[in-house]
Amino acid sequence: MSTSSVLLMTLQVAALLLCWLLQQTVVAKEQYHEFVVQEAAVTRLCRKHSIMTVNGQFPGPALEVSEGDSLIVRVINRGGYNVTVHWHGVRQMRTGWSDGPEYVTQCPIRPGQSFTYRFTVAGQEGTLWWHAHSSWLRATVHGALIIRPRSGVPYPFNAGKPPAREIPILLGEWWDMNPMDVVRTATRTGAAPNISDALTVNGQPGDLYRCSSKDTTTFPVRSGETNLLRFINAALNTELFVSLAGHTMTVVGADASYTKPHATSVLMIAPGQTTDVLVTFDQPPGRYYLAARAYASAQGVPFDNTTSTAIFDYGGGSGSGSPAMPTLPAYNDTGTATAFTTSLRGLRKAELPSRMDENLFFTVGVGLINCSAAGQQSCGGPNNTRFAASINNVSFVLPSTLSILQAARYQGGGGGVFSADFPGTPPVQFDYTAQNVSRALWQPAPGTKVYRLRYGAAVQVVLQGTSILAGENHPIHLHGYDFYILGEGFGNFNAARDTGRLNLEDPPMRNTVGVPVNGWAVIRFVADNPGVWLMHCHLDVHITWGLAMAFLVEDGVGELQSLEAPPPDLPLC
User: How many CA atoms lie within 13 A of 265 on its CB side?
Assistant: First the structure.
């Protein structure tokens, strides 16, 4: 081929690339929003309350973007508590300063102050959400983040036809007192916090609670139409079974990643997780309950054993009879929960790395701290102890003088804020799911420890639940990353037995994985996003007790593999 021909082909390729880049620039947009964190008066369960909200709304405002759009959100704190906002599931590529967990990537926004979050939502489509990441404020400070395909790009389901309606459905919990007082009392005494008084759908408990019927959430729909329901479990401490009377739900996405379509009559959604389903309203016109109740996997542990309802109405009015009620699984139906989570498959073949640079094994579970060791006079746990939780026996302690990300950037080795010696395997190996684990293993060690990852490292993590105190399904959320869930099972993970059973073909991609009660889950990801990224249980009672750790992912080579500079208005501690 002549030199002129090679030059012509090069110019043609460059022109095509330039056109593509221009198209991306034209299609992508920048949105600006103001979130004012403030108190608002609401009435639930016959009582008036003053709750923390964003812009006076509960749930908070839904943000709707297209893939590739950038968000600029100025958060103004006019409330009485320190606050941060986490954009749950957003990759935050190179923008870790905007991730939001207090004392991990930033110091909190103090009352009267503000901070502007800036990030791009790239390579993700589906349903995510945002919520406060300070203490238990997220009980009422949360909202949906809906990411649609770019203009002209069809959904990869329903033969590309857009749904008639898209309906965000936020599932939550309600306390008949200030949630901040609930967690403060528990922290002071060392006891377990009070359970919630109600479950909610879009902020309302529903027909089965006192003083609630007139405000029950109602979704008007039309006969024959197919709608996309975007479920978000925003509850603090409760995994939920969800069902819609008389209708089949077809799962098409989870945690803003598409899945192979899967028809089901019941969903199990853990706190932090989202699930997108298609529903065709093909039943006789009428009113049908959507119902949600707890999946409570821990034996003997109190939970909110109530049922929240909303109504799908295509009967043209209230009618004379009660809405049809779905049959929900029993609260301890682990079989149904497992059948649902293991049914999910990624829409396309997984892009798994051929090598494995880090092979980590993390135990996750609860425990107890002896009163003498705690140095506390108030120990309201069993037998004069305080409740605790840990990963690999390290009970995570948040810093208070500087965020971990600031310390990592400006003080290198941690400067006394953290240490980079989080163990990659349990310090003591034992029968993790035995019925009677030795009491000598019940007490974790407090610490602020991170695990350092080289940029680009291929990482596998075995998440192993323990039966210490009580085995439980733990929804583990990783900030800054999506990961493949290669498999899950019960008992102790056995590499020789279980590795061959892992799904390397079409595993689902998520940001929050349920580690089965007295069981394990295996995840993989590539550490291609520099920064400090929290991994924690999304049951807030457990992160309060210390079930968390953080990865410190180093910069790679050059600007595009390095964390951006911190914003000038980053809050001070």
Answer: 9
First-to-last alpha carbon distance for the chain, in angstroms, is 64
Sheet holding 458-465, edge to edge: 445-447, 394-396, 385-391, 358-370, 458-465, 519-526, 483-490, 509-510
- Nearest CA-CA partner of 510 in 476, 533, 474, 462: 476
| Token code pair at residue 236 | 């603090």
Distance of CA 116 to the CA centre of its chain: 22
Q: Catalogue the E-assigned strands of 422-482.
A: 445-447, 450-453, 458-465, 474-478
| Rounded Cα gap, residues 398 and 136, in angstroms | 15
Tokens for 375, please give them. Answer: 């140095």
Which residues, listed in sequence order, are joined to residue 42 by a DSSP beta bridge? 49
Beta-ladder partners of 264 = 249
Q: Across all residues in the chain, what is the average pLDDT?
A: 93
Q: Helix, strand or coil for residue 443?
A: coil
Phi and psi at 336, nearest 5°, equal: -70, -40
CA atoms of 333 and 267, how far apart (whole Å):
12
Q: What is the distance between the alpha carbons of residues 107 and 105, in angstroms, rounded to a whole number?
A: 7
Q: 144, 63 in Cβ contact below 8 A?
A: yes
Helix or strand (DSSP H, E) at 183: helix 179-189
Which pTM does this prediction carry?
A: 0.94
Residue 421 near residue 449, CB atoms below 8 Å: yes
What letters, b where the CB count within 10 A reaches 16 and e where it falls short, cover 261-287?
beebbbbbbbbbbbbbbbbbbeeeebb
Strand 445-447, strand 450-453: pairing: unpaired
d(CA 31, CA 230): 22
- In this predicted structure, the answer to whether residue 27 has a pLDDT above a threshold of 80 is no
Stated length of the chain: 573
CA 241, CA 557: separation in Å to the nearest integer?
45
Q: Give the whole-angstrom CA distance, residue 522 versus residue 503.
A: 10
Structure tokens, 194: 């009070």
Phi, psi of 445, deg, nearest 5: -105, 125
> Looking at this protein, which amino acid is placed at residue 544?
T
* Residue 233 pLDDT greater than 80, yes or no: yes
* Among 295, 185, 39, 300, residue whose Cα is nearest residue 544: 185
Q: Which residues contact 5 (CB under 8 A, 6 or more apart)?
A: none
CB-based contacts of 264, cutoff 8 Å, min separation 6: 248, 249, 250, 251, 340, 343
Q: Is residue 490 a contact partner of residue 518, using CB atoms and an 8 Å limit?
A: yes
β 474-478/531-537 pair status: antiparallel
Task: Fill in the DSSP letter of residue 496.
Answer: H
The DSSP symbol for 61 reads P
Q: State yes or no: pLDDT of 373 exceeds 80.
A: no
β-strands 445-447, 531-537 pairing = unpaired
Instruction: Quick: pLDDT tens for 207-225.
Output: 999 999 999 999 999 999 9
Cβ atoms 132, 142 nearer than 8 A: yes
Separation of alpha carbons 265 and 283, rounded Å: 14
CA distance 133 to 86: 6
Distance of alpha carbon 241 from alpha carbon 290, whole angstroms: 11
